[in-house]
SDR family oxidoreductase
Amino acid sequence: MKLSDAKVVITGATGGIGQSVAYLLAERGARLLLVGRNSDKLIALVKHMGSEHAWLSADISCAQGRADVMLEARRFGANMLINNAGISEFNELARFSDSQLAQAVNINLLAPMCLTRSFLHELGESPKVVLNVGSALGSIGYPYYAGYCASKFGLRGFSEALQRELTDSRHQVLYFAPRATDTNINSNAVKQMNRALGSKTDSPQEVAYALVKQLQQGKKRVVIGWPEKLFARLNGCWPEVVDNALAKKFTKIQKFVKMVNS
């Protein structure tokens, strides 16, 4: 699909990655329906981008919020959905309540699944594109990210299964996995940990360029960052190698989760 012909729904549109993607797509001629929970930020974003774009304040963690998104997407004539909204928590599993774990699964996995189903099957038969924003931690289980990894592993599996289910369809489902990105989704402790470990962090703009490039090329799956790409492959074939590599860093990682709880 040419981006100049795209009418795109973007969830999590006021976040770091969401905003950067929105600006790039608008520059390439796409029309956008920006979805988030903060009305003031959405209004400011659309005001800056132009009146041809639209916004909707909705909570996609609940059924009514998702229904509102689909109703507006139908009115907008949307033919592309970017499931970008997500949350991340870095802590010991024992520190998470049932509601916190449910929220992670709800926003990172259930909401994209439900929105994708409705988008592909309730908005007519015309060809559509869905891009699910996952994470490098959707392929690598990382200490103190148990809830986040579980939801992002699930999103990767959902995307892959649906890609294969739609083999003879005109619809496309793409999966995009960035590594650590310099946005507010990461706490100060996580940012300090990444620096201490020497982990590369990408800017939202770098991530957005890679995402838009994937849309232009139609690649089914893209993982950005090195050595994250290598670790993802190793974890699939020889997880013991990744076990050992992370075990060597565990004392440092543990230091920063203690900072969260101090």
In short: The longest helix spans residues 98-122. The chain has a mean pLDDT of 94.
